[in-house]
Amino acid sequence: MTALTRRDWRGFEHIPATGGVILAFNHVSHADPFTAAHYVYDSGRWPEFLAKESVFRIPVAGKILHWCRQIPVFRGTVDAGKALDAAISAVHAGDCVVIYPEGTTTREPDLWPMKGKTGVARLALATGVPVIPVAQDGAQQLFDPRTKKFRLGRVPVSVWAGPPVDLSEWADAEPTRVVLDEMTDEIMNRIRELVGEMRGETPPPIYIPSRAGKGQA
Questions:
Q1: Beta bridge partners of 51
Q2: C-alpha–C-alpha distance, residues 138 and 91, integer Å
Q3: Exposure of 178 by Cβ count < 10 A (0-12 exposed, 13-18 middle, 19+ buried)?
């Protein structure tokens, strides 16, 4: 990644040096887990990502992911809850868990963060550790999910962390759908604000992907 990118890293002071923490990133490209991991590693923490279980079945790469203490997510199966249990255990052990609240690369045409899923809120509510919003931009130049094109060369990549999201309003709340949605929206709003600051633009209305693949505000 050092050879492929020119890095603008900011906000390390917001990431606790020790202890359990959740880093919530926006997701602009299939390449950005590499830039995100590089950023977290440079911050002095070891990143533990929640990643699709299918990735862990790739020969060699899957074994490396297990060795590197990454967490498989079994989507749409009876084992789906295992990822949350594993993430809770990792956080309680003092680890740094990285999560993409959107659950996939954004479908917003200009790659702004879209509406998040509630996994990050469930993890935050179950552990009570800080949730750090992290914005990233530029990895789409390595691989653009819209055009499916790769680019080689040192591309500029920005990753900025912000202060912990204030979730005190929901401390000790029951994990109802309303509570989880409100917490998730608060986390995503902080990420969107950081992306806007990074780009020097005002975030557009939140993009909500539909099953047909289109979004609505």
A1: 72
A2: 29
A3: exposed
Q: Measured on CA atoms in the order 58, 146, 103, 188, is the torsion positive or negative?
A: positive
CA 101 to chain centre: 6
Q: How far is CA 70 from CA 80, 163, 190, in A?
A: 15, 25, 25
Q: 143 by DSSP, 3-state: which?
A: strand
Is 5-216 in CATH node 3.40.1130.10?
Answer: yes
Span 15-19, mean pLDDT? 97
The mean predicted confidence, pLDDT, of the chain is: 89
Side chain identity at residue 81, one-letter code: G
168 compared with 54, residue with greater pLDDT? 168
Tokens standing for residue 54: 């299918």
Residue 16 pLDDT > 90:
yes
pLDDT value, residue 78: 53
Looking at this protein, which amino acid is placed at residue 127?
A: T
Q: Where are the domains of the chain?
A: 5-216
Contact 197, 113 (CB under 8 A): no
d(CA 139, CA 154): 11
Q: How far, CA to CA in Å, does 190 sit from each of 13, 25, 212?
A: 17, 10, 27
Alpha-carbon span 192 to 136, nearest angstrom:
10
